[in-house]
Amino acid sequence: MSSPAPLHHLDIGIGGIQVRLRTTSPEFIALMQARFRGFTGHVDAPNHVFDVEIVPVDYAEDEALDGISTEVRVLRDGPRWRLLCGDFDATWTPGTGRGTVRLHPSPYSLDSVLRILHTVLLAGQGGMLMHASSVMLDGRAYLFTGVSESGKTTISRLAPPDAHVLTDEMSFIRLEYGAYYAYGTPFAGELATPGENLRAPLAAIHLLAKGPDNRIEPMGPAEAVRTVMANVLYFARDDALTAQVFDNAIALAAAVPVRRLTFFPDARVWDLFGTTP
Amino acid sequence: MSTPLFLLRSDNVAARRIGDELMIMFARDSSLFSLNETAALLWDAADGRTPLAEIVARELCPRYDVDAATALRDATELALGLAERGILQVGERPFADAGDAA
Question: Which residue ranges make up each domain of chain B?
Fold first, then answer.
């Protein structure tokens, strides 16, 4: 009789939320350590623990993991959530902090599961993930959002040497004791490198557009909410949680300045930030 | 005389007033709509029990200085448009489950 394969684990901490992965595959752990570098490290009491089963990409008998479907489905079934796509199938019970994941051996699959997990967790706590780069300068965080090619990565590349790029792709916003904070994330975009694992009070959110000069213009309250809502990452088709996301966006837009930033893509745009309120 | 119409707010949307705009978000896909002033008036009055003609006479005619027939025609078109988008329900009878909508 053979003994069971030993379990390996990896703790990934993003935005102060610790997720432990347990799997029999040391290769997968090594892959994830590289993918989430800067955000791993053992903790004694993780908030959520997932048992991970690696399913070969060519395992044809698995109907859920067809490797083709790109539609993300996030469904609530009583206290349990199910997260589904063509390359992963996860269940998770927030109340117990336990879950299972079956996925293809790709860092992108786990990356997706973690993003979805955080969208659900943050929605219940007044925070959110937003399609935005975020940069920390002089102890404060500035978010830059907008459509594809609007300059989210560009403006983070242009940040001064003493700035810290929290992410060029996916900003992590938490509400803590009545104030909003931006956290660094490992979710990378064009820079293909994780953000710095730092945290700072959120100073402002900017909707980007490239133009011939640099200027910041205020937005009205409804436009600010529309800007936030248009860029929130959210998948669940759940009435109560969707209304919560809407209320979170309204509260964020009321508490943090949301502005339109037109910029010419060179470093002078950063003269508008830092010591400027 | 035309058949009376009754309006009821859909229960699968979230409505929030932000500044002077009424914003509607659908649970099914998180899509967002802003209602103009007239549509917001219809939304506010859509209790499932009050005939549209009464809403028009009470809310729209005094506000926009328009005759009742013209206002009712425009409001009917607007209400049907909102119903097509799933923001309102429109029926020819009062809605039985309108108790909470008032």
Answer: 6-10+37-93
